[in-house]
Design brief:
Distance between the termini: 107 Å
Strand content: 15-25%
Oligomer: single chain
Radius of gyration: 33 Å
Shape: elongated
Helix content: 25-40%
Strand order of the largest sheet: 3-6-7-9-8
């Protein structure tokens, strides 16, 4: 220890010798003494931290930091061979990361470790505004700059140079926040120095690792944080991840990329029969990357008849993906989805994170989407396009990160999707919101005896067991793509040309057709780009090639056909298609060039047309003026 008559040079160059001492006794000897710890012995000191009073140690270190800060600022001299107490305080979380004694993964168990150092991890879901936590009064000599805490009975005359002292009051500004476990099962109230929040840029919605201790603060058990570190990634089992990656890479050598892609789709959610287009939509949505420069993650809207497993699919996704959030439209409001500012029990304004902020870089599943109020849906505009959530209320003005993939499911307004009405009549959402969904798919419950028979066999015989990829594979692999695999494959020039050509053809078709179901905007091109990148990432390819674009174009057009069966595919030769049906109908018309509806259906069924496609083909022939409905159940064939 040093005595009070040492000068500033002696203070800075002070060094411990051998550390064969009672750590607690020496460290808490006299508060007016200043300690400098040799960096070579620092690990030995930290080893003893777990066995001492956490509150006493942190209180002492903070006191000494304030005590010598004036000297460091004025003298501007630092000895690089030593670690100042400020550095000890700032770096303590990194220096204790490998100490198993400090690690407590279950937040609910922290309350049993009173006054002991604990390290916990979680998400900040609520944060107060800064408040004055404590005030300490120091006296500093005008001449020699000697400083010390002002105690009761102290004079305002320096005992070194007999000059007058200046009284300074330092106010500790703190912030309180709620830390929530990753499984949303437990929460804990934390208190931290506001300077640490500013230094590390921590805000609501961030995933952090904190070190501190439990203490009784204002009659509330509070976790007093002295070290905090942002965590950008979810922890995954490296061994299991490597097994999944090796499996994908091995299969890419054995089979083609298209075959592997089909296997991934067919085996995904394998206990749900068929719906491969919907499964493909979900996989592309989950495989889309998060980028700091532009929006590359995608959003999915599922519109479907009742009892088609929409809610079940959303629930499984939220359970499969880490940090995913599941909400319902009727039970959600704009503040519940984004963020809200409320007063806590101590009358302090607190910023609380909503579902979209909590699910940052993950997935937010919104069920019964149509039951949400229009004013509550407006918050989605900024989140879905900009990836942020802005709030300005009660002197709190901030923008929270919300780069969240949105997967929404809903029933049509008439409960059952009416194919004879337009998409916007079935789905009365604002066009500005619909345009933000990259993928829109309509799932219908079509009456078909063959399909019903196959579905019954699939469910009763449990045919989901013999698959190349099981549920555990998808859970590990998809989380790896979401949180660990940051590579964004570049698009080749040939692929760009194909995307450009398809987009221009789509715009041309929109201008020439009378359909009101599809609006092609510049967002359509960015959607196709995102889907192509997602497909390449799903197969772990290093670039987006023409094959990826072809598959994505086919997929995108299939999605359009689910809600706009009359929409032309720019890559389909409609003249040849018309001629094919003309040749098919010619031998079956009467002398008036007419054909009954029953006869027409019989002819179409007997040809290459599947039973499910008959209605769509008749609608196509009517639109192309090949058929004309003269009277009930009689068509004129114009050939």
């Amino acid at each position: 220890m040093m005595s009070d008559d040492k000068n500033i040079d002696d203070l800075i160059n002070f060094q411990y010798g051998e550390i064969d001492f009672d750590f607690r006794k020496r460290l808490f000897d006299i508060e007016s003494k200043i300690i400098m710890i040799d960096i070579t012995h620092f690990n030995e000191v930290m080893y003893k931290i777990a066995n001492i009073s956490a509150k006493s140690l942190i209180t002492y270190i903070k006191t000494q930091i304030n005590y010598i800060k004036e000297f460091f600022d004025k003298q501007n001299t630092y000895n690089k061979e030593f670690l100042s107490l400020q550095n000890i305080y700032d770096n303590i979380i990194e220096l204790t990361d490998n100490n198993d004694i400090l690690d407590e993964s279950d937040i609910s168990h922290v309350y049993t470790t009173f006054d002991k150092f604990v390290k916990i991890k979680g998400m900040i879901v609520s944060m107060t505004i800064p408040y004055a936590a404590d005030q300490k009064t120091y006296v500093v000599c005008r001449e020699c700059k000697y400083a010390k805490l002002l105690n009761k009975g102290d004079t305002l005359v320096c005992n070194r140079c007999n000059n007058e002292k200046i009284v300074k009051t330092i106010t500790d500004t703190h912030i309180q926040f709620i830390l929530e476990s990753y499984d949303y099962s437990s929460r804990i109230l934390c208190d931290i120095d506001y300077n640490l929040i500013l230094k590390y840029g921590v805000k609501v919605g961030d995933h952090v690792s904190v070190i501190g201790y439990i203490d009784n603060l204002d009659d509330h058990l509070t976790f007093m944080v002295f070290g905090i570190k942002k965590m950008n990634d979810i922890t995954l089992d490296d061994e299991k991840v490597n097994i999944c990656i090796n499996k994908i890479q091995k299969l890419r050598k054995e089979i083609s990329d298209n075959e592997l892609y089909e296997e991934l789709i067919n085996n995904f959610l394998s206990d749900i029969y068929d719906n491969n287009l919907l499964k493909e939509s979900i996989l592309l949505c989950l495989a889309s990357p998060i980028s700091d420069n532009e929006r590359l993650h995608t959003h999915l809207l599922i519109v479907g008849d009742p009892a088609l497993a929409k809610s079940s699919i959303l629930s499984r996704i939220s359970n499969m993906i880490y940090n995913a959030v599941y909400v319902t439209g009727k039970g959600s409001t704009s503040v519940g989805l984004s963020a809200t500012v409320v007063k806590d029990t101590r009358d302090r304004w607190t910023l609380n994170a909503g579902a979209l902020v909590k699910a940052n870089k993950s997935v937010c599943c919104i069920d019964e989407f149509l039951t949400m109020k229009d004013e509550d849906m407006e918050i989605l505009h900024e989140v879905m396009e900009q990836g942020t959530c802005s709030i300005a209320k009660a002197n709190i003005s901030t923008r929270l990160e919300a780069k969240t993939r949105v997967i929404a499911a809903m029933n049509p307004i008439y409960t059952i999707y009416d194919p004879y009405k337009s998409f916007f009549e079935n789905v009365p959402l604002k066009e500005s919101l619909i345009s933000r969904f990259d993928i829109i798919i309509v799932v219908r419950d079509v009456l078909n005896s063959k399909e019903d028979d196959m579905l019954a066999d699939y469910i009763l015989n449990n045919n989901s067991n013999n698959n190349k990829f099981d549920k555990e594979f998808y859970k590990i692999y998809l989380n790896y793509l979401l949180f660990k695999y940051n590579y964004i494959p570049h698009i080749t020039d040939e692929a760009k040309d194909m995307l450009k050509k398809y987009y221009i053809n789509l715009r041309s078709e929109m201008r020439s057709s009378n359909t009101k179901n599809v609006y092609v905007t510049p967002r359509t091109l960015t959607t196709l780009k995102r889907l192509a990148i997602a497909r390449a990432r799903l197969l772990m390819k290093d670039k987006v090639d023409v094959e990826d674009v072809k598959v994505v174009i086919e997929f995108y057009h299939k999605c359009i056909l689910t809600y706009s069966p009359d929409y032309r595919n720019p890559y389909v030769d409609y003249i040849a298609k018309k001629n094919m049906f003309i040749d098919l109908l010619k031998p079956n018309v009467d002398h008036n060039k007419c054909i009954s509806k029953s006869k027409l259906i019989e002819v179409l069924k007997s040809s290459v047309v599947n039973e499910d496609e008959v209605t769509d083909i008749i609608r196509f022939l009517l639109r192309e003026n090949i058929l004309y409905l003269k009277e009930n159940n009689v068509y004129e064939v114009r050939i």
